[in-house]
Amino acid sequence: MFRDPDPQSGLGGWGVSAADDYTVTDGAFGGDASFVMAYPVPHSIRRHFDLYPYLKSLQPDLIPNPSMPGNVSITPSLIRGMIHGHVGDFKGFQAAFEGFQGPHSAVHLMVGGDLAGTCPPNAPEECKDGSKWAPNDPLFWMHHAMIDKVWSEWQSKHEANSMSFEGGSVQRFENITIHERYPNGGPPFLHLDSALSGHGLFPDGQIADVMNTTGGYLCYVYE
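Above: the chain sequence. Below: its structure as tokens.
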């Protein structure tokens, strides 16, 4: 499915040229006038595979092993270990899964381009790399569905996992010491009864309302 060049249904492959910032040229999202991303500036989807993405990290002091290949973070055995481990410890599970060299970020960084949040070359100087336009790439939605699936599998492994939740509302990346203290966010802390805004797209609720994929508000399962 990935790298399918079909102009109607294919996700396309890798960009091939630095001259056009590795713009994807095939598949249904290939770089032409009919499919242009609007954010942060008009541009076409870009992908540039990098097996060693941590070597160019903008925060090297937060990367324990810069020379580690990104695919080491997404091996089946490692994912199984996360699903079976951290019993009743959501903070530990999320820290392992969402860490700077964890499975979530590894895929973003290895694919590069939009999914890695890099600024397009025609963006203004004040543009800063980040995750804000990662959803431009359709791979984002497949990747995040898998993230949700892994979390769902972890929840179902032990009763203590099913409603386990804790974390902060402010990212703490100042240095490695602070990040290790608050790996999934610093205060103000969030809880199951913390408000979850729908921003007008869906009804407001609480975090507890969306902790169960078959709990009433949500209604889906993973195979």
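The two ends are 18 Å apart (CA to CA).
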